[in-house]
Amino acid sequence: MNLTVFADHDLKHHLAGGANVNLEENLRRLSSKFKIRLLCSWEEGLPERETSHGIEIYRFKGNQLSLRWTIPLYFKRRLEADTDVVWDEVDASVPWLTPLFTKKPILMHCLHFQKSNYFYELPKIPAAAAYFLEPMLYRLYKNHTSLAISKSTKDCLIEIGFKPERIELVSPGLDPKIFKPEQELLSKKSKSPLIVSLSRLRAWKGVHFAIQAMKEIAAQIPEAQLAVIGTGPYEQELKKLVSTLGLDKNVRFLGRLSEEEKMEWLAKANVLTKTSGREGWGIDVLEANACLTPAVGWRVDGTKDSIQDQKTGFLVEFGDIPGLAKNVVTLLKDPDLRLKMARQSRTFCESFTWEDSASKIEEILKNLHP
């Protein structure tokens, strides 16, 4: 089977995040079964064509909107004839709209709806327009097979008219190599209170909430530290917020780290904060859990799937900064509770494997092209 995948970025792009990890971990495992071509955006320093882990990657110059024309045109002219199934990876605000330009079987992979997130990134009028148009664009896919990354995402699709039987739920996985012995992980834990936030630095990702909570956390635990992992267009605004709140000694920006460095910080951390407005899942929560690190986050789509409230961490109502700070402080001050939740979170995340998710997707693809 020949599979052509439309996505905004591949994993080497500097804007790649958890969605790209999820996509490529699955594609790498499927590449031994199918011929896979990934069409995505180019950036300086990356080749326009390369094969990586069995995936043929085609990178195109342009912005998010212009690529919605150039990539489909290339596909129509060069690749459609020998494509058996199209994978439409909706990992940005603008879907690829593949039902409008191909009759090939389509698998639409929906990470999450943006909904109110638009109002963090756009002026009011464009945000309102995007909020209104989003469900209309998704409805173009309602007669095709859809892949949802979480129950929250599946529920959102059903709310706008998708038939439940046409939605396949496949959660993300983890690499078994990241699971280390408990004593080894406990020996790496920071002796001083350490909180980690792992995210692309965009307004809707909500890292500003974690920084605002640090004002209250530091008032109770002056030595507490927040390490922010990631880069993005909102970084300077976040640094200004840190200075405004007088938290320069409590907040560190680590930038984009290698996979190994990232896992080292998650292993050091005592708590992970997850403060996005909404998510598809939040793979960083599972990665933290594998390192015996419980999480505190908002009770919103995606995050409420990855954090089991009162068991693997705490869920707080969206925007409740005092509540966020209170629950982080509770975990930092109570090592027995923290260890109990860490062990429960580790048990929870052990059931998520890339082999399992790729196997499920393989069967879905085979049913689309028997």
Polypeptide structure, described:
The protein is α/β, with parallel strands linked by helices. The protein folds into two domains: 2-173 and 353-368, Glycogen Phosphorylase B (Rossmann fold), CATH 3.40.50.2000; 177-349, 3-Layer(aba) Sandwich (Rossmann fold), CATH 3.40.50. The protein has 14 helices and 14 strands. It has an eight-stranded mixed sheet, with helices on both faces. Strands 11-10-9-12-13-14 form a six-stranded parallel sheet, with helices on both faces. Strand 12, helix 10 (283-290) and strand 13 form a beta-alpha-beta unit. Helix 1 crosses helix 14 and helix 10 crosses helix 13. The longest helix has 15 residues, at 124-138. The protein is globular. The termini are close together.
Q: Compute the average pLDDT.
A: 95
Number of domains: 2
Strand order of the largest sheet: 3-4-2-1-5-6-7-8
- According to DSSP, the number of beta strands is 14
Q: Beta-sheet strand percentage?
A: 15-25%
Tell me the layout of helices and strands.
Elements lengths: L1 E5 L11 H13 L4 E7 L7 E4 L2 E6 L6 H13 L5 E6 L15 E5 L7 H4 L2 H15 L6 E4 L2 H9 L7 E3 L12 H7 L5 E5 L8 H14 L4 E5 L5 H10 L6 E5 L3 H10 L2 E4 L8 H8 L4 E4 L4 H4 L6 E4 L4 H13 L1 H15 L4 H15 L2
Parallel strand pairs: 1-2, 1-5, 2-4, 5-6, 6-7, 7-8, 9-10, 9-12, 10-11, 12-13, 13-14
Antiparallel strand pairs: 3-4
Helix pairs in contact: 1-14, 7-12, 10-13
